[in-house]
Amino acid sequence: MNVTVRFAPSPTGNIHIGNARTALFNWLFARKSGGRFIQRFDDTDRERSKQEYADRILYDLHWLGIFPDHVDYQSKRFAHYDAAVEKLKAAGLLYPCYETPDELELKRKIRLSRKLPPVYGREALALSADERASLEAEGRKPHWRFLLPNHAGDPSETQRTDISWTDLVRGEETVDLASLSDPVLVREDGSYLYTLPSVVDDIEMGVTHVIRGDDHITNTGVQIALFKALAAEPPVFGHHNLLTSATGEGLSKRSGALSIASLRDDGIEPMSVASLAVLTGSSEAITAVSSLEELAQKFEPSAASRSAARFDPADLVLLNRTILQNMPFEKVRDRLVAFGIGGPQAEEFWLAVRGNLDRLADAAVWWRVVSQGTRPGIDFSDADRAFLDEAFDLLPEEPWNGETWKAWTRAVKDKTDRKGKALFRPLRLALTGLESGPELSDLLPLLGREETLARRP
Ligand SMILES: Nc1ncnc2c1ncn2[C@@H]1O[C@H](COP(=O)(O)OP(=O)(O)OP(=O)(O)O)[C@@H](O)[C@H]1O
């Protein structure tokens, strides 16, 4: 089977980590099966949708390593939706309704008081042509509902009409259509709600697998009915659990919380974000994965758990450390240039400091420590000062390499009465101005003898 998946956000804000989970699930699924990934913008709401947001979403996806095979916009496809509407009307499956929101609310209350399910009672189906004409003469415009294939007779019947599918993530799933109102597909002003354009596009774009958040499970029941009403075979569906904030709040594009842009601005590596977005809330262990190819190997949709999972950004920093620790120089060479890190020592420098970084930008601090000379102005005690004097006198001659530090400190230990922390701490402080940091055996050759001597307090 030629797999085709899609990611279909509304371009109404910056995507957040939950949206990224959906995008990545689709991307990894496509990569695993050699399939296609369609980026489709659900921009039928012309008021709220903006091209600027669509561009930002594409930028965020590229940053994560997702490069769609095709990009499309629903706002360019209204003719296709209009054609589907005509088909449904001709089949008697889309019917005009005239109730105002207040009238609907009243009907809902009456049904509840009669202990009936609070669904739309299909009263508009019974309207005659004359009744419809007079409602329209009053100035009412119809909205259009899809006649769900449930208890085609009296909606007050309690008979169930189940729609079932085998979910890629959750296994057997069932939605009882009898518990749902006939959904509105077209509003009074002629604009489309999400349901119909999504199904028409999935059919016409040959989407074989719809993978999305479990906020869509009920929609899927309705959409499967709509696929069938349009004489199409429904795709395979998969619904993964949603991510929440660390304190359990839901995420939304409008709030901006945990947006991909904010994590990027915070200096987090794309693979830290991708690893955590995919592995959180699953039975897979959370580990730092270094490429999307490797993540695709680990990815198993059915490993996602059924309940919402908290996304803790503190975990990102831990993953980031691991990812940077294992990052080869070729992968960061160009990015280091942006921090002024380059030249013949750059690779050696990277290998010396990469184990000590929370974020790539931290490398700039170490570059300054190594290349610009640090005169930390540490107030050493007289005893430390005397010790350091003796130690600096013992600095080996060049050439220096990874063994120089060991040779030097061995000589210092033999000559002075110091060992352990009493020996290493003042040396580290004198050389870097800091109590901790990269291995001095790695830093020393980068400094060179002249610069090291210049740091003698
Ligand atoms: N918190 C979440 N965790 C995982 N997936 C999510 C989350 N929120 C949305 N999604 C998924 O992201 C995809 C795009 O959805 P959509 O554009 O509706 O985003 P949203 O953030 O829910 O919307 P809104 O613009 O209303 O904030 C959908 O497949 C949806 O299931």
Structural notes for this entry:
It is a single chain. With 457 residues, the chain is α/β, with parallel strands linked by helices. It has 18 helices and 12 strands. The chain has a 3-stranded parallel beta sheet with strand order 1-2-3. Among the domains are: 97 residues, Glutamyl-tRNA Synthetase, Domain 3 (Glutamyl-tRNA Synthetase, domain 3); 73 residues, Arc Repressor Mutant, subunit A, CATH 1.10.10. It is 45% helix and 11% strand. The protein starts with a strand and ends with a helix. The site of adenosine-5'-triphosphate has 18 residues, from helix 1 and strand 9.
Query: Beta-sheet strand percentage?
Result: 5-15%
Low-confidence stretches: none
Strand order of the largest sheet: 1-2-3
How is the biggest beta sheet arranged? 3 strands, parallel
Q: Tell me the helix content.
A: 40-55%
| CATH topology type of the domain at 89-185 | Glutamyl-tRNA Synthetase, domain 3
Radius of gyration (CA) equals 32 Å
Mean pLDDT: 94
String of helices and strands = EHEHEHEHHEEEEHEHEEHHHEHHHHHHHH
**How many distinct helices?**
18
Catalytic activity: tRNA(Glu) + L-glutamate + ATP = L-glutamyl-tRNA(Glu) + AMP + diphosphate
Subcellular location: Cytoplasm
Binding site for ATP: 253
Domain Aminoacyl-tRNA synthetase class I anticodon-binding: 384-455
